Amino acid sequence: MLKIQQLRKSYGQQDVLRGVDLNVDAGEIVALIGINGAGKSTLASIVAGLCRADEGRATICGIDALHRPHAARRHFGLVAQEIGLYPTLTGRNNLDFFGRIAGMSSRSLRQRIDELAESLQLTELLEKRVETLSGGQRRRLHTAIAMLHRPGLLWLDEPTVGADIQSRQQLLCEVRRFATEGSAVVYATHYFPEVEMLGASVAILHRGEIVVRGSMEAILSHHASPSVELEFEGNVPENLRRFITQKTNKETTRIAIPICRPTADLAQIIGNLGEEASRLRGVELHHPSLESAFLSITERQQSADMEEPLGAVAC
Amino acid sequence: MQSLVDSIVRIHALSLLELRRLRATPGQCYVLIVLPLMMVFAITPMTLAVLRLQGFSNATGAEQSIPGMAVLFSFMSTVLLGNSFFKEHDWHTWDRLRSSPIFAIEIVLGKCLPVLGVSLLQLAVIWSVGLGFYKLKLHGTLLAIAIVTICLSWATLGLGMVLVSLCRTIDQLGIIANMGSLILGGLSGAFTPLNLHTTLGSLAQFSPLYWALHAYHIVIFDSSDLADIALPCSLLIAFGFVGFIIAASKFRVTDVKIGRS
């Protein structure tokens, strides 16, 4: 459904996208995660035809989105970060307008509006002016518009920012349903629990490149391990200082140690502390998570990026 | 053929949306229609005196005030056009529209048509008051008035698109449109007959408002022959085309506009 190959984009001297490759199949949900400024919104804008790429290819349902954007947009739905609605009109007016310019007939549009309104709990709100709706209700209406014409590719750019728990649950549920109906979904987010709730595969965008792409399980097994965090009265004992990362203050009282077998390894660590164990004030076990995998991957990438220029100089 | 039908459907959908927006917040339309009528009532005694002094013994004053206020406030409808574009940026619907399967030319047409409708309605109301309330007598025909009115609305749209293309904020557009209307209107003889402004008369010929007023005056005072309004009407059409050509070269869908004061 979506194929992106070697997509590049620069603003002046700044390379925002440095050769992005990403494929998303029909029925698949891909969580696009990355820190602020990683290039997520720029990537969405290029695929949506809102800005031009410098190089590369992007196809939506087999249509070249960079050279035939108008044709590609028929198969594309964008839920942008900013809510885009006509506030002085009703929810139905908004849905009706965007449905019509997407080429839907009156009858199918009416049916689809009712269907989406029911699943996103908007039915009671359709005849109200948008300016009278709450933030969460607007957020759901904003998402419904992108789903209206059943696009082959739905791209959601941080769609739950500012949404309440109920709105968030409804949106996630609808996104899952949308994917099961056969559409490809790209879901850009900073909220890692949402990725798990969606059962999405993961693409990590870091400094304009997809640095990791795979299923959640594969990423956790390769890039995250359980760890135990110990807190001491006073500084961390000498024999554990080798686990202190560069970024951690040497005078720290807390330390995180990666482990493989939680119970056995924890017992061994405490056993090895000897008399220092009396200064132990707290023990916390951390299970592998997408967050820890993400941090580990991005930290490793940042270290590599810092070394890269030195290598170039040495050559 | 199918793509033309699709295109018409999208233009119609956008025009309908714009009309719904105008109906939901009609204040600006009311101002565009009510304000010129109030001005007509205010200045007609003065224009009556001026026309009588010039030897038009049967004048009602509306011969000057009706076409004068018509051209002056017609140009102010460019603010309406500006709002329809700039508010999209304020509401974040511009990018949503751009990521939808609609062409830029369809967006422009979908937004211009309702404003053209409002402009025609505005002029129709002003002329109806002139002909009905003030018993304004025409040498020419109503058809001639209608032709001039359509040409004036076209020229106004063209100039409106120039402002939409060149201005960055709705405030800039509003100031230029309102000041421009007053200055060009004054220069063109919207308030007082142009023959009172001997030094400004030649400058006025660069203004579409002058040619619209000139055409209206031909129909009111001089001639019943449509051929006599051909030149001013052609010039009004040309002003509109030049406006749209400038807009086509300067208008960028990627430009960031500020729709909030």
Structure description:
The complex is a heterodimer of chains A (315) and B (261). In chain A, the strands form 3 sheets. In chain A, strands 6-7-8-3-9-10 form a 6-stranded mixed beta sheet, sandwiched between helices. In chain A, strands 2-1-4-5 form a 4-stranded antiparallel beta sheet. By secondary structure, chain A is an alpha/beta fold. The longest helix of chain A is centred in the last third of the chain and has 25 residues, at 290-314. In chain A, strand 4 (55-60) and strand 5 (63-64) form a beta hairpin. Chain A has helices spanning 40-48, 69-73, 91-101, 106-119, 135-147, 165-180, 192-198, 216-223, 262-273, 290-314, and strands spanning 2-11, 14-24, 29-33, 55-60, 63-64, 76-79, 153-157, 184-188, 201-206, 209-214, 227-232, 254-258, 280-286. Chain A starts with a strand and ends with a helix. Chain A has 2 domains: 2-214, P-loop containing nucleotide triphosphate hydrolases (Rossmann fold, 3-Layer(aba) Sandwich); 225-286, no CATH class. Chain B is an all-alpha fold and 261 residues long. Chain B has one domain (2-250). The longest helix of chain B has 29 residues, at 104-132.
